[in-house]
Design goal:
Participates in both transcription termination and antitermination. The protein is α+β, with helices and mostly antiparallel strands. The protein starts with a helix and ends with a helix. Helices cover 39% and strands 28% of the residues. It is built from twelve helices and 15 strands. A hairpin with a 2-residue loop joins strand 5 and strand 6. It is elongated and about 105 Å long.
Length: 358
């Protein structure tokens, strides 16, 4: 073998190993892909030379390429290009049995050079497919989790965000109302869904999803991360207010205090990330009446009458608490209903008394 040819084969191996290192693609997969590509190239360029069934082997160390014609061992051969009789096969090697394949090397002269161009397109395509699959696997593992992105540009209401290895779009409906996004600004995003796509993974992200709040609390509050404190429910109107119901499995741990943190540092970090969105931390209770009363915080509730058949309740408050319980444009009671899953009807004691008199 000429020195020049040996040198080129070594260069091929080095190039393949560089791709493995750079792209994170399996070396075995890359060699198999190249061998498949060379089989296709052989069939295209040497279709009339003997057996159409061939195997290509690439030496993983030297890069030497060999082509082997495959003929199946049969009782009696009727096609010498694809078959070989058992008698002929056993004359070569007594171990051959029917169904085995006899291999003969048929490597054409300068095959690597002739096949390289034909194989290049297939290998390039497979590498791109492998890269897309690696990216998809990487991001699909992060589905329903937080990811940090860097704002790149804004166009027609969409915000384009760099995630490191790919880009995503934060659509208008997934942006917090009133929030601005500056070039090169780092923001936290919630991955709602990851889909496979011919051009790469499609990553749907949100700043309005309740899951963003949940993950931020898990990150800030060790007791939630380790499972001592559990988030039971979240209701959110992004950019305005969130209610989060928490419960402690350990009677010695105050779930609300754990979420607030020393001097309010934990919850303030989350409020800051959400651009001053108000957060009501509610103590969850298995008693529906107590849970509903807690959910209407900051209003103070006098009484709760629960009707389990209709999944509804009537809540009684003092007159001076009525507007607080309902909230601006009904927001407080609306979020409380969504948090608890109960229909809530609020009345003041005076309204209740006047209704009784009537």
């Amino acid at each position: 073998m000429a020195k020049e040819e040996v040198r080129k084969k070594d260069e091929v191996i080095l190039a393949l190993k560089a791709i493995v290192a750079e792209k994170g693609i399996s070396e075995a997969l890359l060699f198999e892909t190249l061998e498949d590509a060379l089989i296709a190239a052989y069939k295209k360029n040497y279709a009339n030379q003997g057996s159409p069934n061939v195997r290509v082997s690439i030496d993983r160390e030297t890069g030497e390429i060999k082509v082997f014609a495959l003929r199946e061992v049969v009782e009696e051969s009727f096609d010498d290009a694809e078959e070989i009789s058992l008698e002929e096969a056993q004359a070569i090697n007594a171990k051959y049995e029917i169904g085995d394949f006899v291999e003969n090397e048929v490597t054409p002269a300068n095959f690597a050079r002739v096949a390289a161009q034909s194989a290049k397109q297939i290998v390039t395509q497979r590498i791109k497919e492998a890269e897309r699959n690696i990216l998809y696997s990487e991001y699909s593992e992060k589905e329903y989790d937080l990811i940090t992105g860097i704002v790149q540009r804004k166009d027609k209401g969409n915000v384009y965000i760099d995630l490191g290895k790919t880009e995503t779009v934060l659509g208008p409906t997934e942006q917090i109302p009133g929030e601005t996004y500056e070039f090169n600004e780092r923001i936290q995003l919630y991955i709602v869904e990851v889909k496979q796509n011919p051009k790469g993974p499609m990553i749907a992200v949100s700043r309005t999803h309740p899951g963003l709040v949940k993950r931020l609390f898990e990150r800030e509050v060790p007791e939630i991360f380790d499972g001592t404190v559990e988030i039971k429910s979240i209701s959110r109107e992004a950019g305005s207010r969130t209610k989060i119901a928490v419960y402690s499995k350990d009677p010695e741990v105050d779930p609300m205090g754990a979420c607030v943190g020393p001097k309010g540092t934990r919850v303030q970090n989350i409020v800051r990330e959400l651009r001053n969105e108000k957060i009501d931390i509610i103590k969850w209770s298995k008693d529906p009446a107590e849970y509903i009363a807690n959910a209407l915080s900051p209003a103070k509730v006098v009484d709760v009458h629960v009707d389990e058949n209709s999944n509804s309740c009537k809540v009684l408050v003092d007159e001076n608490q009525l507007s607080l319980a309902i909230g601006k444009e009904g927001q407080n009671v609306r979020l409380a209903a969504k948090l608890t899953g109960w229909k809530i009807d609020i009345k003041s004691k005076r309204d209740e008394w006047e209704q009784v008199k009537a």
